[in-house]
Amino acid sequence: MNYFELYNLPVSFNPDAVLVKQEFYALSKKYHPDFYINESSEKQDEVLELSTLNNKAYQVLSDPQQRLHYILELKGILTEGENYALPQDFLMEMMDVNEALMELQFEPDAVKLENIKKEVEDIACNMQQELDSLFAAFDQQNKDDEGTILKSVKDLYYRKKYLNRINESLLKLE
User: Cα(114)–Cα(174) distance, rounded to whole angstroms?
Assistant: First the structure.
């Protein structure tokens, strides 16, 4: 059973946060181990497993990044250990940013650092806008368009992961 089914919600990159929380609390009460203290050990194990599943579901569905990863895996778009090839134009743009970061390691310059941070922030903002548009299209699409939308989401997912590593490098330079 996937997390969306557990919470009786449609698969969505933007599930209703109030409904997610309501389902979490309802299942937390239903599967609280203390209510099954007098049950058999098998039943206690089953309830503990369901309680753990509920906690994990809430953790994933309430965090946008984890939810994104989960949906891509759920739909079979992401595979473990995949060697995804990012688009060449993106890699060239990131190569320029990485070179600038390397220069700053040897010759610190607060103005250049701020400019790079702004550039990376702009890239991240544009990616998020594109993702938000794709998320809306996914929620409104028919099944014929799902694959195309998910491939675009996957590409942006990997770009964001790359950009997160750049942000980590920026933090080290501060």
Answer: 10
SS3 at position 133:
helix
C-alpha closest to that of 54 among 7, 14, 112: 7
CA 94 to chain centroid: 21
Q: Domain 3-62 falls in which CATH fold?
A: Helix Hairpins (1.10.287)
The residue type at 39: E
Report whether 23 contacts 9 (CB < 8 A): yes
Token pair 């330079």 is at which residue?
A: 173
pTM score:
0.86
Q: pLDDT, tens digit, for every residue of 5-21?
A: 999 999 999 999 999 99
Match 């040897």 to its residue by tokens: 106
The answer to whether 67 and 135 have CB atoms below 8 angstroms apart is: no
